[in-house]
Design brief:
mainly alpha, extended
């Protein structure tokens, strides 16, 4: 039976560690949401820079694909430079995009609810969800800084729940491995 216990022990240990790290990340994000958002913006800048450089290099090496990869690469590098120089501007653009998305999605949900009104009961819940999306989008437009903080808190909430799930799962696997080992 040791062949079953060893993998279970290794998996349980990894799940517990991952869960604890996720919970720690969640707590830090709740305490310092701005740091989390800053890290996300910097990661985007690094990604855009590497993406752009790779695209430019590939287009210069292989000229048969046309000029679009070169232009795309230049756009990515410019986006990276702007993000490095003006990270708050990039964050504001992201939050604005979320606000626009929420409003557009809310309008579409309300229109869908109106169309479904003759087909199903409870369509009002879709309309209510749409109205909530519109309200959220408007609130983010009115206060983009609060919208950014709320986004960080949602990330933290996800990390907290995910971390707790991993922690519980790891502990259950550890308990199972101990029971198997005692047989």
């Amino acid at each position: 039976m040791p062949t079953v216990v060893t993998p279970l022990s290794a998996i349980s240990w990894a799940l517990v560690v991952r869960g604890l790290v996720a919970i720690a990340f969640a707590i830090l994000t709740f305490v310092w949401p701005g740091v989390t958002l800053g890290a996300i913006v910097i990661l985007f800048a690094v990604y855009a820079l590497v993406d752009g450089a790779a695209s430019i290099a590939a287009s210069l090496r292989e000229r048969t694909r046309g000029w679009t990869p070169l232009i795309g690469g230049i756009v990515s590098v410019v986006a990276a430079i702007v993000t490095f120089l003006k990270p708050a501007l990039t964050l504001l653009a992201l939050v604005t995009l979320v606000a626009i998305w929420a409003i557009a999605r809310g309008v579409m949900d309300i229109l869908a609810a109106i169309r479904l009104r003759r087909e199903i009961e409870g369509e009002w819940m879709l309309a209510l969800g749409g109205a909530m999306s519109i309200l959220f989008g408007v609130l983010v437009f009115v206060s983009p800084r609060a919208g950014a903080v709320v986004t960080a808190w949602w990330i933290a909430l996800y990390a907290l729940v995910f971390g707790l799930v991993l922690l519980v799962c790891g502990m259950k696997l550890r308990s199972l491995a101990k029971r198997i080992q005692s047989i």
